[in-house]
Amino acid sequence: MVAVNVLATIAGAVIIYLAAETLKWKSGFWLALAWLFWWPRMWAVRSVGSPETLFIALTAGSLLLFKKRSFLLAAVLGSLAILTKSPGVLLLLTYFIFQIVQFLKTRKWEMRIWPVLIIMGMTLVGLFGFYYLRTGDFWAYFHTGDNIHLQTLPFRVFDSTQAWVGSFWLEDVVWIYLLAGLGVYYALKKDLVWGMFGLVFYTSLLFVSHRDISRYSLPLVPVVLLGFSEMFAKKEIRVLLIASIIPLFLYTINFVSNNTLSIANWGPLL
C-alpha cells in the first residue's frame, strides 16, 4: 500500500507539472517539488496506507485530460476516482456544471462531454449496486454510522461539541480556509476547469464538521498550487521552501508516531 502511495505521489507531481506546462502557467517544476516536499500533511498520508494520494492523482489526471479534451480518458480516471473515495462525485458535479456554463456562454451543448457524465454516473450507480449485492441496501454508504461529516450548515467545524471536532483549538482551520480560498480564486481566474473543481470542492469543505480539515482539504492542493503558480517564481519563496524541509520532516515524524489507534481484535479486519 505504501508503494502505491509513493507511486501515486510521483504521478501527482508529474500531472501538476504537465498541467502548468499545458496551461502555460509559471514554475511547473517548483510546483511539482512543492507537491512532493512542501505540503505538510502530504508527508504523512503518503507514508501510511491512505487513499488520498491515489485519489488526488486520479482526480488531477482526469482534470488534465478533460482540459486537453481527451474526454474518454478523463471519464475513466474520474470513474476510478469515484471508486477510490466518495468525494470523487464532486468531479462529476464539476463536469456537469462546466457543461451548463459552456451552454450558457455559447447556447450550444458540447456533445463530447455527455459520455463523460454518463460513464462516471453509471460508475456511481454501479458502486451503489455493488453495495446492494453485498448488503441488501442500495444506500448502504449512507447507513454506515457517523462517518459522513457533511452538515446542513457551513462552519459547524467551529462547534467544539460536534462528535468529530472535540476541540476549540481551531485556528489552523481558519488559515486553511483562507489559503485554500485564495488559491481557488486565483485558479478560477486562470482556468475554468481547474478553478471550477476547486470551487465545488472548497464549497463542500465548508460544510465538513471534522477536526482534521487539513486531511479533508488535500484534494485542493493541486488547484491551490496552480493558483499560486506565479508566487513560486520568486527566489525568496524557493529559499523558504527549501528551508522548511527540516520542520516538515520533524512534523511528520511527530504526527505519524502519535496518530495511532490500538486495535484489540484484528479479526473483523482480516
For the residues shown, what is the average pLDDT?
A: 90
- The whole-angstrom Rg is 19 Å
List low-pLDDT spans: none
Total of helices: 13
- DSSP summary, beta strand count: 0
Give the CA-CA distance, first to last residue.
Answer: 15 Å
The helix-strand sequence is: HHHHHHHHHHHHH
* Main beta sheet strand tally, sense and closure: none
Global morphology: globular
As a percent range, the share of helical residues equals 55-70%
Strand content: under 5%
The domain count comes to 1
Structural class by sheet pairing and helices: mainly alpha
Task: Describe it.
It contains 13 helices and no strands. It starts with a helix and ends in a 12-residue tail after the last helix. Helix 1 (2-22) packs antiparallel against helix 2 (28-37) and helix 4 runs antiparallel to helix 5. It has one domain (2-253). It is mainly alpha-helical and 270 residues long. The chain has helices at residues 2-22, 28-37, 40-45, 52-67, 71-84, 89-106, 114-135, 171-190, 192-205, 213-216, 221-227, 235-243, 245-258. The radius of gyration is 19 Å and the shape is globular.
Task: Summarize the helices and strands and which ones pair or pack.
Layout: H1 2-22, H2 28-37, H3 40-45, H4 52-67, H5 71-84, H6 89-106, H7 114-135, H8 171-190, H9 192-205, H10 213-216, H11 221-227, H12 235-243, H13 245-258
Helix pairs in contact: 1-2, 1-4, 2-11, 4-5, 5-7, 6-7, 6-9, 8-9, 8-11
Relevant terms:
mainly alpha, transmembrane helix, single chain, Glycosyltransferase RgtA/B/C/D-like domain-containing protein, membrane
